[in-house]
Amino acid sequence: MENILRKSINIIVLPIMLLGMTACSVTGNNSIDNDGDSRHVSKVAWNNQTDADINYILDQNVSSDKTRLVFIRSNDRYSEQTSANIAVNNRFQVSLHPGNYTVVESCVGINQLSAHATGFKDNNLLANKKEYELVGGQTYFFYVNMTQTGQSTLEQITTASALQLLEKRRYQSHQISRVVPNCPLPIIAAPPINPPAVIKTPTPVLSERISIDLEILFETDKSMVRPAYYAKTTELVTFMKQYPNTVVTIEGHTDSRGQNDYNQALSQRRVNAVKEILVNEFGVAPNRISAIGYGESQPRASNDIAAGRRLNRRVIAVVEEQPQNE
């Protein structure tokens, strides 16, 4: 609470040295005496109003996150019960007497301003409030008019009208303002962050057809691929991932032992088994795989000797770029 009070006192619009405000202790009886500019209560005396150079006040810059408000009271000479309690955003600024003016800073944006007679004794700081949209760095002038019965009006006036009135007004020096312009800092939009340019790496193109011997050996008259022969199949899958637009044809061959039709069917079962492994075990898309069994029709060595027959029993993967029209 002590810090808040100190802050409130510090933000009184004009420094004491500027306004020539004086306050001193005087001796005397415990009495109340109002004499011109001076007010006396018991042993305490203060100046209620003082002369101030309004032009000097208005020449001071107002920061962009604040706005300056000047309230001018009509010179009606009514009783102190019609002192106008000036409030800004439900915070007390001053009890403004006839013929005086006060200055205070507030925040930008919508401000609720009100003037309400002290004599009502209800401390209603939102009575007769009006809302104004105020711009930072600007000074606004408001004219306060009170009737003899304490009815008040608050009206925004032009700078020219205000300067003419201020020539005949005095600054109300006795005030403890509770208007604290603790305005939030202006929000500065961060510069847009441009995402880094996406550099598209061209898809590798296989320039020529590649044949890979899968080195899969089948037991006699069998078409099951044993896991021991998956090594070359793994190499094939890796190669096809490097060239994602390729397709593969699995070619199956047998030696000449047995009937031709039987060898044809056997070679087809074997390549179908290899295709199934590529799809189910390695996740190759089925539409990238063709499987053709050639039986004994394409030997690469003599079937008359065991070594030649072993070379003829083979599974070849032929990889090529997928035709553009497919």
Give a verbal description of the structure.
- This protein has 326 residues and is α+β, with helices and mostly antiparallel strands.
- The protein folds into two domains: 2-13 and 50-172; 210-321, 2-Layer Sandwich (60s Ribosomal Protein L30, Chain: A), CATH 3.30.1330.
- It contains seven helices and 18 strands.
- The protein has helices at residues 2-10, 16-19, 54-59, 159-166, 230-242, 260-280, 306-312, and strands at 23-25, 32-35, 38-41, 44-47, 49-50, 66-73, 84-88, 91-96, 100-107, 109-117, 130-134, 139-146, 152-157, 170-172, 210-213, 246-253, 289-293, 314-321.
- The strands form four sheets. It has a six-stranded mixed sheet with strand order 5-14-9-6-12-13.
- A hairpin with a 2-residue loop joins strand 2 and strand 3.
- The longest helix is centred in the C-terminal third of the chain and has 21 residues, at 260-280.
- It is rod-shaped and about 135 Å long.
- It starts with a helix and ends in a 5-residue tail after the last strand.
Shape: rod-shaped
**Major beta sheet, specifics?**
6 strands, mixed
Radius of gyration: 49 Å
User: What count of structural domains?
Assistant: 2
